[in-house]
TrEMBL record:
Domain of life of the source: Bacteria
Gene Ontology annotations of biological process type: proteolysis
Keyword Signal belongs to the record: yes
Positions of transmembrane segments: none
Species this protein is from: Stenotrophomonas tumulicola
Entry keywords, A to Z: Signal
Listed PANTHER family: DIPEPTIDASE, MICROSOMAL DIPEPTIDASE
Single GO molecular function: metallodipeptidase activity
Signal peptide: 1-22
InterPro entries membership: Metal_Hydrolase, Pept_M19
Descriptive protein name: Dipeptidase
Record bears the keyword Heme: no
PROSITE patterns, A to Z: RENAL_DIPEPTIDASE_2
Pfam families: Peptidase_M19 (PF01244)
Length: 412
């Protein structure tokens, strides 16, 4: 999930873009794209949907259209031919006091419980995956794939040994940090700048333990110095689960071309993000920011809304777009980032992590039901089925296989 929660969810692209141009696909292109996705294993590396699992009124088996709180549910996954992906245990960065560390610990465990509870309640539609082979089998069984990831390692600060428990419970991807620095690493967006000049000693120890267990390391949200540390110390490739291209939009959350090439040389993969503020500069006024905060307060705050209030939230966002126009990112903007990255590192090192239910979404890609538009663009660009299969999950699973094979070889 990106910068986070309601004020940032309000930046979702939910109105007509200021630009008159928008990419279009024919019905035949979309039909071909969807048919291809239905044959391939189609995974998104960053789903923040578990944030909805404890929300009153949310049912993953029911469709929640036109709802600013929900972009992913089973019916829309079927429509968009999304087989699943990595479902995130996200914990917001606290004030780093001992009490906050304990709250983070408990919040992470609660989110893990919510994911496992959803799986137990929906055994006919979803299944937990621990290995790449599991994902292939789950798709063949006609179910949706649930890998578990952790975004922000703050739940581990109070007790790093919990990583082993999380691994036993299904964790297969780990990021060290989020919007602000923590005890493990520097964030790309910490307001006061770096604290550790990369990974702290505790962060390096956490990464080494994750590698020992076969957990994939995710660099998204971490600073460039953390990236450099990972390249130096990692015996296996790592990924960026939801990031974009700094050459297209100079934002600290995005990766520059030199590091993109280093990532590819190390065998890693960047999963391209669809969070609008990382794709373009929205040009948001102070009045707009204040109006967003007022809307959030009126509805009780992101974490306390029930799913029905998401409809009211969307109407409020659309009204704000009329009163305080901003630039919303579109598929054109997303494809500018994705196309640039593909040109720099090639299709073997690119994937898709759109930040659904965590701030992702575009004016013309509002939820997972519209994912065949991405495949149609890849086909239009000339990529073959094997390359598209890599982009839609194969490249990421190759990194996972390497991480797990390394752990097995070391005797984990």
């Amino acid at each position: 999930m990106s910068l986070r929660r309601l004020p940032l969810l309000l930046a979702l692209a939910l109105s007509i873009p200021l630009s008159a141009h928008a990419i279009e696909f024919s019905a035949d292109e979309l039909q071909r794209a969807k048919a291809l996705q239905q044959r391939l294993l189609t995974l998104d590396s960053h789903l923040d949907t578990p944030a909805n699992f404890g929300r009153d009124g949310f049912d993953i088996d029911n469709r929640h259209d036109h709802n600013a709180l929900s972009q992913v549910d089973y019916p829309r996954m079927v429509e968009g031919a999304l087989d699943g992906g990595f479902w995130a245990i996200y914990t917001g960065q606290g004030d780093r006091s001992p009490a906050a560390h304990l709250r983070d610990r408990d919040a992470g465990l609660q989110r893990l419980l919510e994911i496992r509870t959803m799986l137990a309640a929906n055994r006919e539609r979803f299944a937990l995956a621990l290995t790449p082979a599991d994902a292939v089998r789950i798709k063949a069984d006609g179910k949706r794939v649930v890998f578990i990831s952790m975004e922000n390692a703050s739940p581990l600060v109070a007790d790093p040994s919990l990583l082993s428990f999380y691994h036993q419970a299904g964790l297969r991807m780990l990021s060290t940090v989020h919007f602000a620095n923590n005890e493990f690493a520097d964030s790309a967006t910490n307001p006061k700048g770096p604290e550790w000049d990369g990974l702290s000693d505790a962060g390096k120890a956490l990464v080494r333990e994750a590698v020992r267990l076969g957990i994939v390391i995710d660099q998204s949200h971490a600073s460039d110095a953390v990236f450099d540390d990972l390249v130096e110390m990692m015996p296996v490739p790592f990924v960026l689960s939801h990031s974009s291209a700094k050459a297209v939009h100079d934002h600290p959350r995005n990766l520059d071309d030199a590091r993109l090439r280093r990532l590819a040389k190390a065998g890693g993969v960047i999963q391209v993000n669809a969070y609008g503020g990382y794709l373009v500069d929205p040009g948001k006024s102070e009045a707009r920011k204040q109006a967003e905060e007022a809307l959030s307060k009126r509805l009780g705050g992101w974490g306390k809304m029930d799913i029905a209030q998401g409809v009211e939230l969307q109407r409020g966002e659309e009204e704000l777009d009329r009163q305080f126009p901003v630039r919303h990112a579109s598929l054109d903007d997303f494809f500018a980032h994705m196309g640039h990255i593909l040109d720099v590192v090639g299709p073997e090192h690119v994937g898709i992590g759109l930040d659904w239910d965590g701030g992702g979404g575009l004016t013309d890609l509002r939820d997972v039901s519209e994912l065949p538009k991405i495949t149609a663009w890849l086909l239009r660009r000339g990529y073959d089925d094997k390359q598209i299969a890599g982009i839609w999950g194969g490249n990421l699973l190759r990194v996972m296989q390497q991480a797990q094979a390394h752990a097995d070889k070391q005797g984990t």
